[in-house]
Amino acid sequence: MSRQRPLPMRFLPTLVWDALAMAGDGAAARRGASHWYIRLREEEHDEALKSEFADWLRADPLHSEAWTDMCKTMEVVGRAPAGWRSYSFPGSGQRHHAALRAPERRKRRIRVAVGAVAAACALVLALPAISLHLRADYITGAGHIASVRLADGSIVQVGPDSAIAVDYSDHGRTVRLMSGQALFDVKHDPSRPFRVQAGQVTTTVLGTKFDVRMLGDATSVAVARGHVRVDDRGATPAAMYDLLPGDWVRIDGAHRGETGKVAPQLVGGWGQGEALAENRTIASVVDEIRPWFGGRIILNDARLAGRRVTGIYNVKDPEKALEMIVQPYGGHISRITPWVLIVSGN
Fold first, then answer.
1. Do the beta carbons of residue 66 and residue 33 sit within 8 Å?
2. How far apart are CA 63 and CA 69, in angstroms?
3. E strand or H helix at 168, and its extent?
4. pLDDT for 105-121, tens place per residue?
5. Which of 30, 240, 301, 339 has the fewest CB atoms within 10 Å of its CB?
6. Short-list 233, 245, 247, CA closest to 195
7. CA distances from 101 to 89, 93, 113, 165, 290 (A)
8. What pLDDT shows up at residue 128?
9. CATH classification number, 273-346, choose in 3.10.450.50, 1.20.120.550, 3.55.50.30, 3.30.1330.30
10. CA distances for 133 relative to 104, 162, 291, 334, angstroms
11. What is the DSSP secondary structure assignment for residue 149, as one 8-state letter?
12. In degrees rounded to 5, what are phi and psi of residue 190?
């Protein structure tokens, strides 16, 4: 199957690379950006507040980075209100005193910088989605599932907010899971091994039904029927796992592998809109819910994230599922816009 290729990297505007380089981890700055977004949204005509915001923005490079990240959040799939897809400071009129000219020039530079960041926000968010569309053969949106029959008769159930690319030849069959999750029901063909590549993790089968997922920083494989081999090239030394029906392996971002058992009939339960958690961290279950929400879910409490839960949750109602998960620990859910859910501790 022929696919369009992404644009060569040299054609991407320099502004985008500048914005991408601004990614930072300052928790206080991110909290400040959330604070400023809410205040500016509620008091959009308060000129003094906008001046305070300008002072905050230029006080620390981390503040600009955090504001950029907030822009990305608000631009989720282009559904942020049009008036908030860019932000600039109003002009203050012509100054007649020479002593004010330098500060005014600085303000103009700030206006230009903030406008550039806002413009980059929309483009930075759009580029990964555009690139994914160009490279993927099948792609789904948040909360949507697609059933795909491949050329050999194999069936792939593509999970929400997920993408796959298919590469078949006379000697082998390869599907790349580019994002999200997919359930594979593979047509038996000993002469052409079937492989699923998910980052550095490769699952090889001859005929089986199994689930591959890339959620958060972890990649997991679970088998409903048959026998698969999972190879993790990112581990040192490289790791290999043999999985039979009911077996699962979860490989985290540091390439640590965890294995376990589950009833084979429960493998791929997300296809029915269910998240199965058995002594799992809240953070990992939140990662499973994110593809079902058409916005951003922010888990801002490290202690809560590490708590463990057991249960079956209806991910088709993300907010309610999150409430059920965190309420036993005193956690709560705050919706600050239709596109952002904040998961907090007590």
1. yes
2. 10
3. strand 163-168
4. 444 554 444 454 454 45
5. 240
6. 233
7. 17, 12, 18, 56, 49
8. 56
9. 3.55.50.30
10. 44, 11, 17, 32
11. E
12. -60, -25
* Type of residue numbered 320: K
Residue 44 DSSP code: T
Taken as a whole, the chain contains a residue count of 346
Instruction: Indicate whether 311 pLDDT > 80.
Output: yes
* DSSP structure string for 190-220: TTS-EEEEETTEEEEESS-EEEEEEETTEEE
Q: DSSP state, 91?
A: P
**pLDDT tens, residue by residue, 62-96:** 887 777 776 665 554 344 434 333 333 333 333 33
Sequence spans of domains, the chain: 9-135, 136-270, 273-346
Structure token digits, residue 24: 């930072």
Structure tokens belonging to residue 134? 């160009």
Q: What is the arithmetic mean of pLDDT over 47-63?
A: 84
Task: Give the mean pLDDT of 263-289.
Answer: 92
| Residue-wise pLDDT tens digits, 1-44 | 434 333 333 333 333 333 333 433 466 777 777 778 767 766 76
